[in-house]
Amino acid sequence: SVTEIRSGFTAIKANIQARDPVRTLSILSYPHSLHKVQSSGRCCIAHNLFNFYVDKVFKHCKTEDSYINRKISSIANSFLSMKRKLGQCHEENKCMCGQESTEKFKQILANYEGLNVTSAAIKSLGELDILLDWMEKSR
Amino acid sequence: SGELSCSLPNPRNVHFESVNMKNVLRWSAPEGTGGEVLYKVKYLVYGVGKWIRKPECRNINRTWCDLSSETSDYEEQYYASVKAFLNGMCSDWIETTRFNPLTDTKIDPPMVSVSSTERSISITLTAPEKWRSPEGESVSLLQVYPGLQYNVSVLNKKTKKRWFFSVSNNTLIVPRLEPGTAYCVSAEIYVTTPLLHSGFSKEYCIATLKDK
């Protein structure tokens, strides 16, 4: 659940964010905050972002710290189960992707591809609270 | 050439101290120095391209700087940084960790008001306001944290029996109490995600009316 992801992230937030030296770039918030996405596009963005984290981010987040790695894999497992739930909404056509949300997700991918894969993955992981704050606010 | 040499020890423990989203940058003087050191402050919205100087905190000798209005958008995250100057020397810029006002603020306990009848107590709870600038609009933390709840404790002063209640709305009536008895109430705010606790308020005591 979101609460499990939140507590797992809180435990590693300082460590992961300290590994990201780039202050002036954001994967999720550039150029516009997730909060600017219209409500109609939220399910689509959430669905795409869960796939993004599972397929692209977690696998590139290995660290030398076994405690951190364990926390990352438990967050990844929570993401997998939430990804399945959102997948069902997508299959039942309750998760339409309009132009705005499609553009927003394209921008997120472009921000990600603009960095080398390890830096991009660590930065994305360090921005998990941006995703969680947005999801909780949109509930 | 008047060029500063940055060999001054660095400011220490540079961090945001935040209560109800009043966000104050604080730090300690460099090792071995005191009140004679001057400081400069800058801040940055995470993911946005430039650091911004805070003019009101330029060449100050205090060790704090109120950045509440610069960090009032709690949908953004921030960094701040401090540099020290003394006798023609300077330190490095020393940064905070990434500051998320939504998760990194402390919340004050709610205001509690109580009234009583012969056999019940009525409790009204008010969540604190988010910090705002003088001309800013009043925003309750209830609007910031939709999942905000109250934990309420009611103590019978005579029997020392205590009840706990968890409520989402801001009023609570405790029925079936003893007439002419003193009860003390305290309350805390509790947010599930992100996980935040205010800690309990002080106790507000009231006596139920005597039986007619």
Automatic annotation (TrEMBL), chain A:
State one molecular function term (GO): cytokine activity
Subcellular location per the Swiss-Prot or TrEMBL entry? Secreted
Keyword tags: Cytokine, Disulfide bond, Secreted, Signal
Where are the annotated coiled coils located? none
Cystine pairs: C43-C95, C44-C97
The organism sits in which domain of life? Answer: Eukaryota
Is-annotated flag, keyword Protein transport? no
Q: Does the keyword Acyltransferase apply?
A: no
Q: Say where the protein is mainly found.
A: secreted
List, alphabetically, the GO terms of the cellular component aspect. extracellular space
Q: Report the family membership.
A: Belongs to the IL-10 family.
Its biological function?
Answer: Immune regulatory cytokine.
Q: What is this protein called?
A: Interleukin family protein
Organism, per UniProt?
Answer: Ceuthmochares aereus
Lineage of the native species? Answer: Eukaryota, Metazoa, Chordata, Craniata, Vertebrata
Give me the gene this protein comes from: Il20
> Which residues of the whole protein are included?
38 to 176 of 176
